[in-house]
Amino acid sequence: KQWHLGMFEIGRPLGKGKFGRVYLARERSSGFICALKVQYKSELQHGSGVEKQVRREIEIQSNLRHPNILKLYGHFHDSKRIFFILEFAGKGELYKHLRRENRFPEWKAAQYIAQMASALRYLHRKHVIHRDIKPENILMGIHGEIKLSDFGWSVHAPNHRRATLCGTLDYLPPEMIKSGNKDNSYDEKVDLWSLGVLTYEFLVGEAPFEDTPVMTQRRIARADMTIPSFVSPEARDLIKKLLVLDPNKRLPLESVQQHPWILKHCVKGERAANREKSSGRD
Ligand SMILES: COc1cccc(-c2nc(Nc3cc(C)[nH]n3)cc3ccccc23)c1
Q: Ligand 1: does its nearest atom lie under 6 Å from the Cβ of 69?
């Protein structure tokens, strides 16, 4: 399908990301509402690997179909800009909700982590590592479901990173910051570490290793964090099973979805109803 700008009515600007602006848009012929992300080619430094990242983002995200992963419907470009036709998530950036509420109640955090684990299982089955899981890269749909977005940093596993890391170190696993890791090679298990950091941040309102950049690196390398006493023992158990230095000892996604803290807060509708019925309890 050959997309072009004339096919869309551009609505209000939704906001600016790190690499461009996002607008509400409607596809004229169908009336379909979407989000149009515009990136200026001039802003993508030539040869810095960012162009390759954009191509990879398109190739990876356009082949993904999952309720908790933001869909990329298509893309097109003109002489100066690249346009991404993206799924519209009505409630915007999850981290704005987190900052506003300071921290999420355990039932809400558990539901978000369960949805993230489902999205990551889907990605890992396709040997895609997201590598940049943090609240800033998660959007929220109108029914409060979360949508993992921004695949600019995702790659096919296994991988060793070349592009320089920018932005917060808070979510990086030890194997991605340790210079000791000879060729910086790592695999999907980096997303398990980030899921642990995300769980902590949802429940505490700040990242577990938040500090000055030097101290953050040191604390990550030692998995040096303290979990406040208001965090329930079940949630504490899950965080401690994900924030493990040895990637192979981190709790696998299947076990995350079966963890007592997740099961306690994410009763499935019909299964729970059937259980109620069969046990005759009201
Ligand atoms: C920096 O603030 C930014 C940046 C980019 C988008 C939003 C934003 N986005 C969306 N939905 C989206 C965005 C995409 C790519 N799909 N669906 C909804 C919103 C609602 C209120 C405020 C802001 C919103 C904010």
A: no
